[in-house]
# Entry
Amino acid sequence: MRVTIIGGGLAGVESAYYLANKGIEVILYEMRPYKSTEVHKTGYLAELVCSNSLKSDVPYDASWLLKQEMALLNSIVIESARKNAIPGGKSLVVDRDGFSAYITEKLLTYKNICIVREECREIPKDRPVIIATGPLTGGEFAESLKRLLGEEFLYFYDATSPIVTRESIDEKICFWASRYNYGGADYLNCPLDEDVYESFYNALISAETVPLQDFEKEVFYEACLPIEEIAKRGRDALRFGPLKPKGLIDPKTGKMPYAVLQLRREDREGRLLSLVGCQTKLKWKEQERVFRLIPALRSAEFVRFGVMHRNTFINSPVLLSPSLALKADPEIFFAGQITGVEGYLESSATGIVAGINVYRLINGKEPIIFPWETAIGSLIRYITTASSDDFQPMGINYGIMPEVEHKSRKERRRLIAERALESLRRVLDEL
# Structure
């Protein structure tokens, strides 16, 4: 039996890895590097196109729990992330290229994984098939998908942050630290006084942005708003958002700055730094002009500018079953951000689930429906049962998991996490 997987992103590689380890022959289609997108830069599988952070790694945080569940399921994404981790305070931050190179090289060692480097233009007739083409699904394949689904895609707009060289930053007026000294001194902090903040804010809200097409509505994902959109919500919105100084003390003054722009390592050596929380749709020249108003970045060399891209996803509550199979054709599975989950971890987790249930389909077994008590189960429950009228992407959070009774928020999270891991272990016994 052979399984076809369309898309070599985080979800696709997880599905391929699971099935290959079960002895299944896999055909994995990935069009890059021969055809790229507006945000991809390499030909690696599982390339990270936005942040290089896999969210909080603090015990009992929701994203920590999802990592624990994925690790129990032998996730290649978590394996690579741990091997390619770089300092990131409370977050699991990875060397961007090292992370993707590790996954690519590992999958190439499998004789039963055939990686086809070409664009898949229509849904293959061979079954079963996993569609993991991601939020940038387009072209002829998108049209083929629309015909299959019988409806248009849903969408929102996402953006990436600029990346600058460390050597071009004036570190004499910065300081290395993490909020509340959690972990190591992992972030380069650029303090802003009130006058500098005022100048930066005014320049940001008046800067020229890349226009959308006339027929497109400006729909943003709330958890990843462009920095200029946050600024337009009020003069101090940035100081309570991406430029918040809370938990940071400038060693030169012994005080908390008025505002702080943080930079995070992009690579293991720390030669490249990204502007944390500064995803933007500003035109490139405007990005240089506005961000260079920050004193430490006056001579900053930009090696990547922030860009805006449209993220496509399907109406999963109408179309998908809890196994991630298409209701209208149970031999077609979907995984990744195209399903309406939001985030690297979330996309990867659905790839594992699709792989598991394709394997069970091949072997004539009923699909595994992950319990609501688990982080993975709660994500899939959300995307398959949410209101189809206003369905929007969702990342992992405790709000979509069953509550437990306890006065302490910290203790509630611990109890939910322990319950989730216990429930997942029962799933593993069944597997």
